[in-house]
Amino acid sequence: MTERTRELLQKALSLPDNERAELAGSLIASLDTNIDPDVDAAWQAEIARRADEVRSGKVSTVPWPEVQKRAREVLRKST
Predict the structure, then answer these.
(1) For position 2, what pLDDT does the model report?
(2) Angle between helices 3-13 and 17-31 (to 10 degrees)
(3) Distances (CA, A) of 22 to 17, 26, 34, 78, 79
(4) pTM exceeds 0.85
(5) Using alpha carbons only, what angle is made at residue 56 by residues 54 and 61, rounded to the nearest 5 degrees?
(6) Residue 15 CB coordination number (10 Å)
(7) Gap between the Cα atoms of 63 and 67, Å rounded
(8) 14: alpha, beta or left, given left = phi > 0 and alpha = psi -120 to 50?
(9) Which pLDDT tens digit goes with each residue over 46-73?
């Protein structure tokens, strides 16, 4: 990593969470130059389906701290 890159990283890490997330998403998206419109359409349909399931009460959400806790338990068991 170059010095310039390290400086940019330090500046980025000092941003608020929402801005860091937006920046990370933009950087990742910039790496994908071959966008398959069928994949994008499939993801949009999946997002709509999942949102409908939550709104209808068919499924419920899990709070982020609980997701983190469960993930840590899974990781501990796998090591």
Answers:
(1) 96
(2) 140
(3) 9, 6, 21, 32, 33
(4) no
(5) 20
(6) 12
(7) 6
(8) alpha
(9) 999 999 999 999 999 999 999 999 999 9
